[in-house]
Structure formats: C-alpha cells, structure tokens
Design a protein that fits this description.
The complex is a heterodimer of chains A (about 70) and B (about 130). Chain A contains 2 helices and 3 strands. Chain A has a 3-stranded mixed sheet with strand order 1-2-3. By secondary structure, chain B is of the alpha/beta class. Chain B has one domain: 3-Layer(aba) Sandwich (Glutaredoxin), CATH 3.40.30.10. Helices cover about 45% and strands about 15% of the residues of chain B. The radius of gyration of chain B is 14 Å and the shape is globular. The relative contact order of chain B is 0.23. The chains are: A alpha+beta (about 70), B alpha/beta (about 130). At the A-B interface, helix 2 and strand 3 of A face strand 4 and helix 4 of B.
C-alpha cells in the first residue's frame, strides 16, 4: 500500500513543477492539494486527469479514493 | 472486448445520451454505499435538480465499461448533457461556487452549505436490468 509521501512523490514526478500536499489516514484514502503551472488554461476535468495519470490503474483499486483539489500558483 | 461488455458500454452510452443529468454512483440516491457518492447526491438534491442515477455496484462490468468510456477512473461520475462534469470533488467545488447550478440551469440556493447527508430523492435506474 502506498503512503502519503509516496503518493506525493508520484504526483510531483508525473507533473513537472507541481507541488503536492498529500494526507492519508489509512494509506487507502488519500486527500491531495496539487498546485501546478501545468493546470493553467485546463478545465477541472483535465486538471484532475493530469493528476490521475500518475496512477496507472491504481485509482479505485489499491488507492481507493484520491480526494483532489487542483490549483495554479 | 466481449459482446457483453460491448452491450454494457452501449447501454451506458445510451443512458448518458438519454438523460440530461445522470449520476453513476455506488448505491442509490436513497441509500448511497460510499461517502463520495453520498456527497455528490447531496449537492444535486440541495439544488433540487432532477437526475437519473445508476448504481454501478450490481455488476463490476458497469464500472469497468464506464471508466473505459469516460476515461475517468473513480466513482461517482456526473454527466450533464452528455459531458462528464466530474466526480465528487469537482461537483462539490462547483456546487459551492454556483457553477453547478449554472450548468444544471437551476437557481443557486441563498445559502449553499455543503450537505453531508443526502435526502430521499431520485429513483435509481438499473442498467443491468436492461441487459437481461
């Protein structure tokens, strides 16, 4: 099971220049606030998809839930 | 892809096309089986917005085909006029900002407090029932 810091590292590695704050009470449910220049001009759907792309097939599985808030700096 | 998953995907696509507002969720609006689904239902109900609901739990293939179709990994998923609007986080954010009311063509209540517990509401729709 991934830890919050692993999830943070995955997001930051996947989106260049992104900063992520990740919390998890149980390493199954995660809550993340992601700030990235890359979100500029994208719809919320597109912003979330960009974050989801860091987790190939794990969302809804090993990572049961990733509560997400995306922002531009 | 098997013939049956084709059929399920077609039924999903048709349900999305037929219903201006449709929520794919875990459980039913009356009995959500997941907190994220419950919160999404609560936002829609706080706006008094009519919506169709599909429970993805009865058959794992519904969820599998839905995610393949929408390119969105998690449940719930809200579609308005055939377009994916988002899951719980986006719907909640849009509810609080008034964008959801706008997208649904309804009035934003004076106090848009996020509702935690869903009220009794829309009748669920069963995709699996249509396939049998």
């Amino acid at each position: 099971m991934p830890t919050a810091s692993e999830v943070k590292a995955r997001i930051e590695a996947s989106i260049p220049g992104a900063t992520a704050e990740v919390q998890s009470p149980d390493n199954v449910h995660f809550s993340a606030r992601v700030i990235a220049d890359a979100f500029a001009g994208l719809s919320r759907i597109q912003q979330h998809r960009l974050v989801y792309a860091a987790f190939d097939g794990e969302l809804g599985g090993e990572i049961h839930a990733l509560q997400l808030k995306t922002e531009t700096p | 892809m098997s013939e049956q998953s084709d059929q399920i995907r077609e039924a999903i696509a048709q349900a999305i096309g037929d219903n201006p507002v449709i929520l794919f969720m875990k459980g039913t609006p009356d009995q959500p089986m997941c907190g994220f689904s419950a919160r999404t239902v609560a936002a829609l109900q706080a706006l008094n917005a009519p919506f169709a609901a599909v429970d993805v739990l009865p058959d794992p293939r519904i969820r599998q085909e839905l995610s393949a179709l929408s390119q969105w990994p998690t449940i719930p998923q809200l579609f308005v006029n055939g377009e994916l609007v988002g899951g719980c986080d986006i719907v909640t954010e849009m509810y609080e900002s008034g964008e959801l009311a706008e997208a649904l063509g309804v009035d934003q209540p004076a106090t848009a407090e996020p509702v935690q517990e869903p009220a009794v509401g829309a009748r669920p729709m069963g995709i699996e029932n249509r396939l049998s």
